[in-house]
Amino acid sequence: xxxxxxxxxxxxxxxxxxxSLEEAGAEADLFSPDGFVAGQMIVHAIEEGGGDDxxxxxxxxEGWEFEGPKGTTTVRAEDHALIQPMFxxxxxxxxxxxxxxxxxxxxxxAVAPPVATS
Length: 118
Known about the structure:
Elements: H1 12-23, H2 32-49, H3 54-61, E1 65-68, E2 71-75, E3 82-83, E4 86-94, E5 97-106, H4 108-111
Antiparallel strand pairs: 1-2, 2-3, 4-5
Helix pairs in contact: 2-3
């Protein structure tokens, strides 16, 4: 299983993220989609929640479904868990190193953690 590698998702959001990183002289890594999604969530919370009402911004994110770099992503309303796809990968030798190749995309519901209860 893999949380992310740049060649796994095939969508416009991932392509835009990878391109912007490359323009800045960087490569997408395991943590790149997390930062990108955090930015998407901040913008959405401010736009929908007004930017100065914390409760309204939280409410704006609860249950929000959007396209992130990894694909369709949802902020689960019950416990704010981020539900997103994962990837099954194989490693293929390429020259002197190994590169990941997508074997399968695992749908978000299949890898969602149990709902947290208090």
